[in-house]
Amino acid sequence: MTDDIDRAQAREQQLRADALRDQARRAGLAGKTMADSAMDCQDCGNPIPPARRWAMPGCVRCVPCESAQERMKGRFL
Hints:
The chain folds into 2 domains: 1-31; 33-77, no CATH class. The protein is 55% helix and 0% strand. It has 3 helices and no strands. It has helices spanning 4-26, 50-55, 63-75.
């Protein structure tokens, strides 16, 4: 027999899963996997580390190049 605490925990888990799904969708990561990431950076040609490809599925730049790209975007906003 479930009690109020069990139902509250189940509801919290559902809300968390929904929030993570929505965030992934907004970030454009929904359904992407490490395999969707580039192996080499499109800007400098250096290999993209597996840890970055896992953390940011679909990435096409290494961290230094992505940081530079984001700084450039900030200048033109």
